[in-house]
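Figure 2 data, in text form.
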Amino acid sequence: MPLVQVNILEGRTDEQKEALIHELTEACYKAIGAPRETVRVLINEMPKQNWGIGGQSAKKIGR
């Protein structure tokens, strides 16, 4: 059972997250032959103030 964990900045729509889950599931199916129903996708949404880019928070640099 493949488990895919993704860390992303907060702010994506439910539709975008559904699309991400679908595409990652398809990638596992195509790459390693994992049956789609066995693929698990875990999305961790990070607050922008908790994500650092180049020594500054994503919130501070407007991401």
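Caption note: Strands lie at 3-9, 40-46, 52-53, 56-57.
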